[in-house]
Each structure stands twice: as structure tokens, then as C-alpha cells.
């Protein structure tokens, strides 16, 4: 049985983990490599690293960091944030990233998805969609959720699949950081309109939220950041809870 | 020495990194002399079957692979290339395993991405210590049919070959280099064959 995946997301800035974290026994809580290793040991199924550095410095710090992460962990990981060109992707894949996630760049230049899928295979290409409910319609946001477009999230999800995306990482901007639970309606709608795996993101605040999104939508993975960083939920406990509630999970 | 076959495939590096984590040096190469001399050969792979096979044929690496006598491990696309034929762009493959590689039915969620256990597992030195409940990491849209060389069966939509072996040729559909402890176990088994 294919298991539902639990994916911690780590925000990286200038090579350092940004958000505070509650792991004990970490020598350096800001070191993404050490945090990645801790998550892998806690049976995280995959990791996502989101580079939020705003400057041109990011290229200098990101590639060596990705290489170190690849050397430290034995689970798959995705790198995203500010990827705009094939060269960015090439650098990340060569450094050892298993997948890259593209967001704004793909919306501004949709053929990028097809180019990346042709060159690296669909399995490498995650299209991240930041969706926001505006006047009753879920539309796509760009620039880290700050700019709202008129493009319906459903339309963009379908188009991403057609262009060769291997997975969709769907974040509800409305719920992100709220702890109120995943947006089940848009998650369900996107899962129903594509045949590629969908990762639900934005809003996780309790183990019940994970159970709910797995039981009530077709998503095959759920992502959270804050919750795990601050140790509000520990991954092994979350997994035990889900298993107990008949969700197929890797323990 | 462990040789990782270098060809137009994506993830040679993650295999090398995984071996290093386990304390083993390896070399990524397409040099026939080194491949023939090495103690182990790994054919990794993320990519597309037709272009991979053309790449191998143009360099006579297809016949070289068939002539290898040391333990060989195909991973993911590596496994599929060791089959007789792939539906992916209707590609003739190496023919080590008498199995056709087919695409998962399009009406289901494909690729098969994530952790999956075994539906059945026969005893084999490569799979020593692995249990049916162990989850390994898969990423693929095509699968090898069950055949007489199938050593482990995984089910996604339908049952398919998760591991195969014929003589010195071993192959796994999952990615041991990305499969946490269970994957490490398999790589260690391969190195100890």
C-alpha cells in the first residue's frame, strides 16, 4: 500500500534555517543540515527546502548547502524558492536535489515546466501553487503569495499537469500559518482535476488536520513548517495518531 | 571498487553519495575498462528509456553490460532497461529479464511517488533482512511485469516487480539510496554479495 507522506518544510535564508525550532540536542538550530538529519531520524518521509533569500547571494550559498544536505540524509528532498531558469535547476539537481519546485517563474513562463520535465523527467518537477480564495474563486498567487492573479487554481493545476509536472504542491494562502486546518475544498478540487500526486499545504495545526486532509481529499502528502519547527507536533507522534485512525503511513 | 554507470541519467550522484554515507568510495564512469574490472556495477537511473538505450547503444555499453560477470544492480530506470522491452516510447531494452515494462493505467494517479511496502518477498541475498512491511521509496510511471525472475512484488494499482534477479544481475524499482534504513540495508546487502 502506498503510504501518505508527511513532509516538513524548512525555510532557508542565506544558507541558514530561518524559523525557530524546538529540537533538543541540536548543536546549531540554524543549521539546515542538522535539522534535516533530525527530521529524517524522526521518520519524515521527504523534506522540502524553501530558499527565501532575496539577494543574489543565494546562488553562492544554496548549491553547497544542497550538496551537504544530500550527503547527510537518506530520504528524498525538494528544493524551491526563487527558481527562474533551467540553469538554477541544473545547479540544484547536480548538487543532489531530488526534485525542484517552481512557482512564480512557471506562471510567468509556463513552457519552463515542459523544458524541465523534458530535461530531468517529470518526477523532478514539482509545481508549487499558492491558492487564495478571492470572491468565491480560488486563484493563483505569485511572489510568495503576495500578488494575486486572476488565474483559477484549478486551471493552472490542469495546465501544470499537461506541461509535465510530476507533482503539485498546493498551498492555501488563506490558511497558511493559521493552524486552522488545511483548505479541504480546494485541495479536493485540485486532486479531482489532475492525475498526478498532490501535496496539501497551509494550515496544519493539529494531528486531526492531517487525518482530515488524508481521509477527505485525494492528496497523497501533507506539508507543514511551523508546527514541526516549534515541536507543536512531533512527527513520530503524528504518525502514530494517523495510523491509529486508519491512515496508511510509514512508521 | 564500485562503479556507477555514467550515462544520460539524472541521479548518479545520489547513489554515489549514499555509498559514501555507508563508508564506500565509488566511481561514476562509462569507461569500459573500469566497468569490467570493478567489483560491483550499479546502473542508476532517472530518465526516459528510449534516449537512455540509444545512449548506451551508441557507446556499445549495452553489450558491455551484458558481458559483466560481477554483481550488477539496476535501480529504477536501470531495472527497466534490463527488461526485454519498454512501452516508454516503444523501446527495445537489454533483455536480461524476460519482462515487458508497461505504463501504469492512465486513469490512476501517476507517477507512483512515495513509500510502499512489499506484497510478497522471496528469500534472496539482496533482500536479506528486509520484511514485507518495510517501506521503500518509489518514483516511476512505468513498471516491470511480474516474471520468473521477480523476487519481490509491490502493488500500486496492480502488482509489479519491485526486485528481480537473474544470475549476477539484480534490479530494484525503488530507490534504495533514498529509502532510509531499509534502503541502506539493501545497498549493504548488494555490496556483501
Descriptive notes:
The complex is a heterodimer of chains A (251) and B (193). Chain A has 251 residues and is of the alpha/beta class. Chain A has a single domain (5-244), classed as TIM Barrel (Alpha-Beta Barrel), CATH 3.20.20.70. Helix content of chain A is 38%, strand content 24%. Chain A has helices spanning 32-41, 58-72, 86-95, 104-108, 111-120, 153-163, 184-193, 207-216, 226-229, 235-244; strands at 5-13, 16-17, 47-51, 77-80, 99-102, 125-134, 137-142, 147-152, 167-172, 198-201, 221-224. An eight-stranded parallel barrel of chain A has the order 1-3-4-5-6-9-10-11, surrounded by seven helices. In chain A, strand 3 (47-51), helix 2 and strand 4 (77-80) form a beta-alpha-beta unit. Chain B has 193 residues and is an alpha/beta fold. Chain B has one domain (2-192): Class I glutamine amidotransferase (GATase) domain (Rossmann fold), CATH 3.40.50.880. Chain B has helices spanning 12-21, 32-37, 49-58, 61-67, 77-81, 180-192; strands at residues 2-5, 26-29, 40-43, 72-75, 83-86, 91-92, 97-103, 112-116, 120-121, 136-140, 142-144, 150-156, 158-166, 169-172. In chain B, the strands form three sheets. Chain B has an eight-stranded mixed sheet with strand order 2-1-3-4-14-13-12-9. A four-stranded mixed sheet of chain B has the order 6-5-7-11. The longest helix of chain B is centred in the last third of the chain and has 13 residues, at 180-192. The chains are: A alpha/beta (251), B alpha/beta (193). The interface between A and B is medium-sized, with 31 and 39 residues.
